[in-house]
Write a structure and sequence with these properties.
alpha+beta, Trypsin Inhibitor V, Chain A, 3-stranded mixed sheet, 10 helices, 22% strand
């Protein structure tokens, strides 16, 4: 599920697109209220919330996103209407290749506008009955939080030599505005709250402002018991610099996106953010948590592996080893760098 020619039903992460379209169309706002009864009847068919037979009850638009409530998005889709919903799918680029520098890129597989009836519109609103690529999904989701621009993704930014000197800089300016800055700002705020209080809370990292959306989609045929679990995250939420999408195909046992992909995303972002030089800012409440704060990485070179592990454990740091042997010959991060407690230090070993 990582190739540019792979398509799949995106599930609830697509609710980001439905939300942004609904705000742009003026059919939903931050304080708009909904009622989830556990299902919604559309075209004579009862379509359930993932929480059925339980219900979310009364909830605001923001709470609908936080709880990924299907009836909320079915109502938003219905209020947008089939013709305008199809327009927004085209506007977010699901009918075209993203233009990424990789061969064999596919485009989305979606209904023509005259094929979208009430039931099709309802299930499309929460990410079913059409297929797109993961890169198309990330591109559209990035537009929802980057100020409103649909951007052509590229593999490379620059070329450097072995000493880190810049050899060539690539400049890319292929972008077009698809939503307003105000809608993008609102989406960033709501998706940040989803990580802290909603279905994405398993990716929460103290000191960092993350936004994101979970997804759990059934594979065809329905009822097969096979799922795709996913988690999309961006950070920092108030000025996004990085976005990641974790997709787990046919997880065993637990299958909800937040449960399965959330911890993977947390580990991934905990490594990416310090690497990018994005410093954590801890609230007073976070500083009172166990294992929260920063520590300076000690110099572990030439130490015995057992002693190095003990030192890191005492500091609240995890250890990963690369190579054979019992003596540390190199490490990452380098000595004296400040990293979060709970972070991983890589030890390179030799005899």
């Amino acid at each position: 599920m990582t190739q540019p020619n792979d398509t799949y039903e995106p599930g609830s992460i697509f609710k980001i697109v439905t939300s942004a379209a609904g705000v742009e169309e003026g059919v939903v706002g931050l304080e708009t209220m909904f009622v989830c009864a556990g299902s919604r009847t559309v075209g004579g068919r009862s379509i359930g919330c993932w929480r059925r037979p339980r219900a979310h009850g009364a909830l605001s638009f923001a709470e609908g996103v936080q709880n990924s409530c299907n009836p909320v998005f079915m109502e938003i889709g219905e209020n947008i209407g089939a013709e305008r919903f199809h327009y927004w799918m085209l506007r977010f680029g699901f009918n075209e290749r993203t233009g990424i520098d990789l061969p064999g890129e596919a485009v989305g597989i979606m209904f023509d506008v005259d094929e979208i009836g009430p039931v099709e519109l309802a299930v499309m609103s929460f990410g079913q009955s059409f297929q797109i690529t993961p890169m198309q999904l990330m591109r559209a989701s990035a537009a929802a939080v980057n100020g409103g621009y649909l951007i052509t993704p590229h593999v490379g930014m620059k070329v450097v030599d072995n000493d880190g000197n810049l050899v060539e800089q690539f400049f890319h300016d292929e972008r077009r505005r698809v939503i307003s800055p105000s809608t993008s700002e609102l989406m960033s705020q709501i998706l940040e709250s989803t990580v802290y209080v909603g279905t994405g809370n398993r990716s929460y990292i103290p000191g960092y402002r993350l936004g994101g959306k979970t997804s759990t989609s059934q594979k065809l045929p329905r009822g097969s018991g096979k799922y795709i679990s996913a988690f999309l995250t961006f950070a920092p939420a108030d000025n996004p610099q990085v976005m990641a999408l974790v997709i787990i195909d046919e997880p065993q046992g637990a299958y909800y996106g937040g449960q399965v992909a959330g911890p993977v995303m947390k580990e991934l972002m905990a490594s990416i953010l310090p690497y990018l030089g994005i410093e954590p800012v801890f609230s007073e409440e976070e500083l009172d948590m166990d294992g929260v704060g920063q520590v300076a990485v000690p110099n572990l070179t030439k130490q015995n592996l057992a002693a190095a592990r003990h030192t890191l454990h005492t500091l609240g740091l995890e250890t990963e080893t690369i190579g054979e042997g019992r003596v540390v010959i190199s490490q990452f991060p380098l000595p004296n760098e400040s990293i979060n407690q709970g972070s991983q230090v890589i030890l390179y070993l030799s005899d």
